């Protein structure tokens, strides 16, 4: 029974956190003056969910379903998350990749109601004032983007707001972080996308991107304003910043703020988790493998750096570990003194003493990798010839096509299985359906960051973790891999089934919380005796609250005193 105060009358039906729709009891309807504003039948939450799913499945396309889910989230938050939690495999691709990519591209057309904050470069000097316009004071997790590199779609400017909204929806649906703790933010510094600048429906600033000193001052002000408004322990997750900003901003802020970059560190963690599972299928020691990464941006560098940590755990030195990792960018294999150049500080860590090679298939012939990992965001690149070559080099070649959305994947699941005659270990960033090949059912794994960042967020908001060292991401990867059963491996899965993701997120949160207390990174005091039970008790639930005020009877007490 709650003691919170709720609006009455029609306003109650507009409050997404209080609204139960047709599930309001007759007593609640009469007391809160909404009797007659709803049909007379009182529905169960399960029937409400069934009705919504019936409508959703009858819609013509995924963008329509995305819009419908967004409308439900605005109308009845508990029902939205009940739908997302009970039908995770069906709903996750609609609220996030791949559908969110199309939603961002069409954002100017489909925008209806704000779900976060838009802070523009024109607000420079007043970022704190904009943050004060958010009505919730206890914000514990922010996902922020500047829209410059949305998935594999490039600069979408203000339209990138779909990413923070989608990510934070998954914080709640997949880990149970209370939605009132979450705040999506877009920092609008302009866009270099000419299509949007000329689009009458574009909702962002119609100017080229601000860069350099002014941009840096703006980001500095934002970080300081978040701490002033919400406290030092508020998590700031950077999302879809371009490479040239992502690495340097992470390096700049990681020691002074509670922050991480999901494209670098989250992607790394889920990929390394998949790698640790894959070697259980191939039967080879982690240190006996060579890894070729197609792409050398945030994702590939982040995965490589965390893979080095994993290889060090197996006994290799840092330099020995890096010798097993080969990166390929638009100019070919990354090698020292490459005539075509293009080597930044991050790439140079993995530059080998080797002759330059341009074509991916030639690189594979020479390097002979066991793992081929795509994270370039450039679309189909793993041709049948390349996949067949991987199969000729390995009994069980490992193919990870991690680029999002689906249109940017390096290959599809069916292409990988057919070219390798069903022998490959496959995972992708966006989901692919189960498939039949040669009488066997294959279940493609989805190496989505959603296995990682919700659990990390849950640990941070429940235990007030102050900083996020790289060790946490290796720990999350190892915990994720440990949840993959032998039965999962036999089905070709390198990740737990998506239906188990809420439990997986909690186990990741518990492992991270234990580490944080050991290293004095958690500010919640005293330390809970049973972290698993404590974190589980803090997970958001989709059960409707009894909104009737406390009630008690005076009559017996009064009569007894006469």
Give the structure's gist in a few sentences.
By secondary structure, this protein is of the alpha/beta class. It is built from 26 helices and 14 strands.
Describe the structure.
The protein is of the alpha/beta class and 562 residues long. It contains 26 helices and 14 strands. The protein has helices at residues 10-14, 26-31, 45-57, 62-75, 77-86, 88-95, 99-105, 107-110, 127-131, 162-175, 194-197, 212-230, 243-253, 262-282, 298-313, 318-322, 345-348, 360-367, 384-393, 413-419, 453-463, 470-482, 486-490, 501-518, 531-538, 555-560, and strands spanning 117-120, 141-145, 182-188, 235-238, 259-261, 291-294, 325-329, 332-333, 371-374, 398-401, 425-428, 435-437, 440-442, 445-446. The strands form 3 sheets. It has a 7-stranded mixed sheet, with helices on both faces. Strands 1-3-2-4-5 form a 5-stranded parallel sheet, sandwiched between helices. Helix 20 (413-419) links the parallel strand 10 and strand 11. Helix 3 packs across helix 5 (77-86) and helix 4 crosses helix 5. The longest helix has 21 residues, at 262-282. The two termini are 32 Å apart. 48% of the residues are buried.
Low-confidence stretches: none
| Average pLDDT taken over every residue | 95
Please indicate the percent range of residues in DSSP E strands (runs of 2 or more).
5-15%
Biggest sheet: strands, sense, closure?
7 strands, mixed
Question: What is the strand arrangement across the widest sheet?
Answer: 8-7-6-9-10-11-14
Structural class: alpha/beta
Query: How far apart lie the N and C ends?
Result: 32 Å
Radius of gyration: 25 Å
Secondary structure tally: strands: 14
- Helix fraction, binned, reads 40-55%
The total count of helices amounts to: 26
| Silhouette | globular
């Amino acid at each position: 029974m709650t003691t919170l105060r709720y609006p009455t009358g029609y306003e109650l039906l507009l409050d997404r956190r209080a609204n139960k729709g047709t599930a309001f009891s007759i007593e609640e309807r009469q007391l809160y003056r909404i009797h007659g504003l709803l049909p007379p039948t009182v529905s169960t939450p399960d029937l409400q969910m069934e009705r919504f799913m019936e409508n959703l499945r009858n819609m013509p396309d995924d963008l329509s379903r995305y819009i419908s889910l967004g409308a439900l989230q605005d109308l009845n938050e508990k029902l939205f998350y009940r739908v997302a939690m009970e039908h995770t495999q069906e709903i996750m691709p609609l609220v996030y990749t791949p559908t969110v990519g199309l939603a961002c591209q069409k954002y100017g057309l489909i925008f209806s109601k704000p779900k976060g904050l838009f802070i523009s470069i024109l607000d420079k000097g007043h970022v704190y004032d904009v943050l004060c316009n958010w009505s919730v004071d206890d914000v514990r997790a922010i996902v922020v983007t500047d829209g410059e590199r949305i998935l594999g779609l490039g600069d979408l400017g203000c339209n990138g707001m779909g990413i923070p909204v989608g990510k934070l929806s998954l914080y709640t649906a997949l880990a149970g972080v209370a939605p009132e703790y979450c705040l999506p933010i877009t920092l609008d510094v302009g866009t270099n996308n000419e299509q949007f600048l000329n689009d009458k429906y574009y909702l962002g600033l119609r100017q080229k991107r601000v860069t350099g000193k002014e941009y840096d001052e703006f980001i500095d002000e934002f970080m300081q304003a978040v701490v002033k408004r919400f406290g030092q322990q508020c998590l700031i997750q950077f999302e879809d910043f371009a490479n040239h900003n992502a690495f340097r901003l992470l390096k700049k802020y990681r020691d002074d703020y509670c922050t991480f970059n999901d494209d670098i560190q989250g992607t790394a963690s889920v990929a390394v988790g998949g790698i640790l599972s894959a070697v259980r299928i191939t039967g080879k020691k982690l240190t006996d493998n060579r890894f070729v990464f197609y792409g050398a941006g945030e994702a590939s560098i982040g995965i490589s750096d965390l893979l080095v940590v994993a290889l060090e755990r197996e006994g290799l030195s840092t330099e020995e570990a890096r010798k097993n990792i080969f990166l390929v960018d638009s100019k070919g294999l990354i090698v020292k003194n490459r005539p075509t150049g293009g080597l930044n500080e991050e790439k140079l860590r993995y530059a080998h003493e080797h002759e330059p090679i341009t074509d991916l298939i030639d690189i594979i012939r020479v390097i002979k990798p066991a793992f081929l990992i795509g994270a370039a965001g450039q679309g189909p690149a793993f041709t049948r010839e390349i996949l067949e070559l991987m199969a000729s080099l390995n009994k069980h070649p490992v193919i990870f096509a991690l680029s999002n959305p689906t249109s940017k994947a390096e290959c599809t699941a069916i292409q990988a299985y057919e070219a390798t005659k069903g022998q490959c270990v496959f995972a992708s960033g966006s989901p692919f359906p189960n498939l039949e090949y040669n009488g066997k059912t294959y279940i493609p794994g989805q190496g989505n960051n959603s296995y990682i960042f919700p659990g990390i967020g849950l640990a941070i908001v429940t235990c007030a973790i102050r900083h996020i060292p790289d060790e946490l991401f290796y720990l999350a990867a190892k915990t994720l891999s440990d949840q993959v059963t032998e039965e999962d491996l036999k089905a070709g899965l390198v990740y737990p089934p998506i239906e188990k993701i809420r439990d997986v997120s909690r186990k990741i949160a518990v492992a991270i919380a234990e580490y944080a207390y050991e290293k004095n990174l958690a500010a919640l005091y005293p330390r809970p005796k049973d972290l698993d039970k404590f974190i589980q008790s803090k997970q958001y639930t989709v059960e409707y609250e009894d909104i009737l005020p406390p009630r008690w009877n005076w009559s017996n007490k009064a009569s007894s005193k006469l």
